[in-house]
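2024-03-11 09:14:02 INFO worker-7 job=invfold-0412 stage=load source=structure_tokens
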């Protein structure tokens, strides 16, 4: 659905030159929910604006659904942009217009008849669950409701792609989940390809099929979310993954010599990471039985990503030295990534 080929964008300002996007190539399949994650300033918004050419790349090609947008003259581009809806962190609704008028706005610009508009807006209000807010003004709505209006407006013209730039970043966690649910529903029931731009791994984990990680204008890593989660290759990805779990805290605690991670002579402090299939095998109890050791769980986190369990456990192992070593060997032979933190 979207092919970005060698996209570059540099800004020249009073503060100097910023290479906001550097040689980014991405392929986003029709019907998928694709995440772009990165810290603030990584170039995500600039890249998103390059997809619909609100920002023209300095070089590179943008192809959406077979049409090369970067080759189109302005007028044809305006027509093609209708196939790309967009929503933002701060909703960008028109404050002096009602919910109905906000959603109807793009349809009016497409010169649809009053009857067509009425039918479509009613359908959209139903879809985003805002029937009763039809005549309300934006300042009478909660953040979540405003984003629902923005979503209805963005998909009113039946785009093929919906670009979401930090769409949940101004919302509380519960509202975030309800908006992500709505996006999932729109993706599944209408087949709209969704690009989710975010700085939050929890958002990626919740709805994305695949994800690209951006750092300083570049895509440093991309792939299926479950793969990135289980084996993050780059430091920035690793820190995003760990941001959703507390199990990385153990390293700080060891450094601070906190009592909770204090071990006795002979004991070994380890961190285990495993994917679903190994979790099914009652790993810890088996190792404990087989090697006659005790496994005391200090921290644990099990994520479910694309229906696969990804577990991280921090354990204190106690027992005979040889048995502990044998148990560690057994675990690593059974697809568990095991790190000795302290001994
Ligand atoms: N219109 C602009 N003029 C100058 N610099 C810009 C402009 N837009 C973005 N930048 C700079 O480009 C870099 C990437 O910004 P942005 O794409 O907004 O990142 P993100 O969305 O990941 O936070 C930042 O250093 C930002 O200051
Ligand atoms: Mg941004």
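2024-03-11 09:14:09 INFO worker-7 stage=emit residues=343
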């Amino acid at each position: 659905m979207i092919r970005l080929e060698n996209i570059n964008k540099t800004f020249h300002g009073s503060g100097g030159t910023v290479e906001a996007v550097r040689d980014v190539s991405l392929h986003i399949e029709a019907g998928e929910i694709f995440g772009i994650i990165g810290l603030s300033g990584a170039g995500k918004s600039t890249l998103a604006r390059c997809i619909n050419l609100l920002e023209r790349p300095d070089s590179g090609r943008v192809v959406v659904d077979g049409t090369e947008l970067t080759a189109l003259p302005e007028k044809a581009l305006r027509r093609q942009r209708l196939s790309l809806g967009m929503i933002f962190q701060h909703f960008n609704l028109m404050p002096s217009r009602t919910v109905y008028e906000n959603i109807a706005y793009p349809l009016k610009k497409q010169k649809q008849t009053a009857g067509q508009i009425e039918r479509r807006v009613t359908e959209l209000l139903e879809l985003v669950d805002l029937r009763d807010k039809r005549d309300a003004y934006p300042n009478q709505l909660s953040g979540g409701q405003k984003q629902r209006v923005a979503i209805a407006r963005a998909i009113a013209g039946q785009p093929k792609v919906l670009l979401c730039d930090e769409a949940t970043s101004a919302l509380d966690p519960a509202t975030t989940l309800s908006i992500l649910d709505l996006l999932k529903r729109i993706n599944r029931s209408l087949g709209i390809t969704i690009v989710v731009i975010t700085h939050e791994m929890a958002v990626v984990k919740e709805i994305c099929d695949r994800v690209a990680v951006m750092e300083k204008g570049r895509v440093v890593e991309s792939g299926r979310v479950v793969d990135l989660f289980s084996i993050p290759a780059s430091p920035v990805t690793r820190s995003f993954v760990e941001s959703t779990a507390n199990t990385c805290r153990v390293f700080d605690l060891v450094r601070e010599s906190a009592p909770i991670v204090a071990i006795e002579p002979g004991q070994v402090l380890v961190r285990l990471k495993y994917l679903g299939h190994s979790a099914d095998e009652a790993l810890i109890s088996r190792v404990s039985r087989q090697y006659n050791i005790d496994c005391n769980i200090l921290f644990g986190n099990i994520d479910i990503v694309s229906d696969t369990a990804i577990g991280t456990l921090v354990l204190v192992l106690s027992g005979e030295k040889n048995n502990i070593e044998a148990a560690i060997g057994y675990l690593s032979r059974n697809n568990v990534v095991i790190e000795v933190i302290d001994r």
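2024-03-11 09:14:09 INFO worker-7 stage=report msg="DSSP finds 13 helices and 14 strands in the chain."
2024-03-11 09:14:10 INFO worker-7 job finished
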